[in-house]
């Protein structure tokens, strides 16, 4: 797969001359057009015009110059198929082994004040995307570079491989092409479409929902929910159901032992682990007997008859499990609207989170790494006892899934009190303590987990006064020393993990 002929046609000429010199050093014939060819000749490089290669002149003010069988045939014919090779030879089609193309700057053009519609239309690139897509489709043989940042990698590979690139690199570069052309086309569609209320997404439309978060809002689901969940019973899923299901699946993935979690508005309101699911349910439900009304229940073992009978006593929206016994289905299917969802395989959250914001989208890595309390640093005079370590680990797994500011009081196998989403961390502590009191649960000897540092000692002091004897938090406050001193004064053990788990 040695590169012998390359076509270079770029708007952004960053790194162009260096790329061309590197290719020429490998004896590669350079084809080019317009301003790119002029820039290369000015640098002293030998260049063959595409018009000379095709025998067809540029025309229509440059709208047609690379749209020719000798260009696209040279990119697309398969070198491993004798019939393709025969046809290429019969029509005088020479292989083009590398394409370096970037596109007319459409988005920058339409962003200029006063740009006319005619100017915008003229900045829609046709030949560039066509060459990129042809080269990317045939990446088994053709190297395609749409980003100047990749030029150096291409040359390094050619130096290391006798003038060739590796299949892995060609595939990676092809992926970048299809991502680029997809974004480019969406930008054009957005400009032409104006604000007609339509929505374009790279994922396919999976279903139109009855409505969005509220009845006056339109709602749609994109992607492939069926790859992860199978609905066994109940009415169609709602927008809010899908948010809650996602939060529930993300949470249950933290646990290996038999566990039941109850969620409401994406927040855990009770989590329990036990040798049996009914035992786990009793612990989870005991945390808060009011909030689960209309909530989401998830377990990480096949749902059995005892758990089904217990769940049937309250109103729930959705129940999720890796499977359902026949007896449990018989019980739960009596509730006409209850949605029963079978989770396919161990939950694997998306690798990236995407949220809409003013003017665009926010994208981040998913917060997948919970870490272990035992890997953290004990910062107090007293180290946590084994039961406290287990309670800290349990609380740390759960608090990551509670909206900030988040506080969780926990025992070794259950939640005892949860405070979520308050503007002040000490208020989250107070709510968690109040919820435990409402549930009749003692916090004596409990562990308290905080998703972010205690900015002042007051939150930790309130937790200690409620009965907590150990705490886990990321640390990192300018007042860490004051918080540590408050813990030492009360004989508490405290671990800093160094990892924050904000959830907004």
How would you describe what is shown here?
The chain has helices at 16-25, 34-42, 50-54, 69-76, 82-90, 106-111, 117-122, 127-137, 151-160, 167-193, 239-252, 277-287, 305-311, 326-332, 386-399, 425-438, 457-466, 480-489; strands spanning 5-9, 29-32, 48-49, 98-101, 143-145, 205-209, 219-222, 229-233, 259-264, 267-273, 295-299, 316-321, 339-343, 352-357, 360-365, 377-378, 407-411, 414-419, 447-450, 470-473, 493-496. It is 37% helix and 19% strand. The strands form five sheets. The protein has a six-stranded mixed sheet. The protein has a six-stranded mixed sheet with strand order 16-21-20-19-17-18. It starts with a strand and ends in an 8-residue tail after the last strand. It has 504 residues and is α/β, with parallel strands linked by helices. The chain folds into three domains: 5-193, 3-Layer(aba) Sandwich (Rossmann fold); 226-343, Cytidine Deaminase, domain 2 (3-Layer(aba) Sandwich); 373-496, AICAR transformylase, duplication domain (Cytidine Deaminase, domain 2, 3-Layer(aba) Sandwich), CATH 3.40.140. The chain has 18 helices and 21 strands.
